[in-house]
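## Example record

The block below lists the input lines for one assembly entry, exactly as stored, with component labels intact.
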Amino acid sequence: MRSRLAKLAARLVPAYEYDAETFFAADGAPDEVAARRRLGFDALARVYRERFAASAAFTDAAAQGISDLQFTARYRVPFPFSRHVREHLRSGSFVRASDGAALVDLDGNRLYDLTGSYGVNLFGYAFYRECIAWGAAEVAALGPVLGQLHPVVADNVQRLRAISGLDEVSFHMSGTEAVMQAVRLARYHTRRRYLARFDGAYHGWWEDVQPGVGNPLPPRETCTLKDMDAASLRVLEKRDDIACVLVNPAQSLHPNAAAFVDSSLVDSARHAHCDRAAYAAWLGRLRDVCTRRGIVLIFDEVFVGFRLARGGAQEYFGVRADMVTYGKSLGGGLPVGVVCGRRDLMKRFRDMAPADICFARGTFNSHPYVMGAMNAFLRRIEAPGIGALYASLDETWDSRARALNARLEAEGLPMRVANLSTIWTLCYTRPSRYNWMLQFYLRAEGLALPWIGTGRLIFTLNFPEDDYRAVAERIVAAARAMERDGWWWPAPGLTNGKIRRAILREMLVHRLAAFSPY
Ligand SMILES: Cc1ncc(COP(=O)(O)O)c(C=O)c1O
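Predicted structure tokens for the full assembly:
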């Protein structure tokens, strides 16, 4: 129901853009503050023109033929602000090299990489270069032969069985495909139609797991439940048509909210906090219901597997799933999706009904080069140094986050970080319509963010201390510049609720104007 309403609401949002005046005073800021913002914006635009000229020009030309770049360029900030930003703060989406913790753009700028390559990068790019080279050498004699397996596959399977604690493994080309396969198998074995997922959780981009905005089709056999809510357990107790429950443990940082995207950062209501014990207890209760009701519990660890612990979310939260999907880093730098599952659930045929099969093939599944790089990855994470890294992860990253927050607080800056280990999000403590501007100050400070902006910063597990200190300095410097340039001007009496109501009124006016014949 909520998915349908969200889609309807999305269709009704009218297109409009702020003119050069409103851009700087959308919150009703007085002239003095608007002038300060304008000066700050112009200075930043000069920095961008000088520093990112080649990268921006190359991106502009290439974007004509790359629809993805057109999309990401448009959705970096709330849409009424978007055009002005696109015109003046262009920095580009192409990079030439990776070097330690940094990326090098087409202008030769070194930017600390906080994109994490969508979460793939756990141990630094040099690690993955080595995995790819080692893996390629390992399978070179076979080359890109498909349909028959290189022996390295068997070793990968043994290692994955040990890590996941599950019996069997299947290989796919992406995380999305791995989730598709796990859900299909759950439906096949339970003979039930519905998959249950939790509000806000991402599981790839295929139809059934994306029932809301972004998917032109209405939801079908998908049931979206409230995360960490007893009512959801009652639904699972009662219904007889639910085949599986999909859990993305990254949601423990922001239950019931999608990953934060700066294009929807219209106020300061973004809230994130991981309560590890509470989430573990919740997963335990979910586990019990699923066991009792014969529902397949699937942990989608495409993002957090190998990131939270070597044994992933199962180890981190101390709860075992019936099936686990992995992807991203497990390919050793190459594309991959993996399903690990209980033997009875992984089986694709029925002994007593030979024509009733569960089909799952794929041309490039178990590609020798991917399997080689994966083998390097799985061997290397057994090294004692990596074990020590995993053992101290939370201590390292929680204390880094705490220290940075103490500093931001001491300086009176209205911004904080919230983290689930190495996965960070920036939150804002003072109601404001301009928090999204921070991403541009961060880039000017030499920090590369994902296209969604300040909603998700992803560090490597072994991000060096010196580099981390430099990143923290730059985050503080960017926040100071935001404050100095007036974007966080404390409008008297402003609340997040008032901001939202003002935006709603604005939309209504534009919606009605669109219907007017004059
Ligand atoms: C939890 C989760 N599941 C599935 C996917 C989809 O993986 P892929 O992009 O490899 O298809 C992602 C990607 O970010 C993810 O985070």
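The chain has two domains: 15-121+393-504, 129-257+275-390. The radius of gyration is 24 Å.
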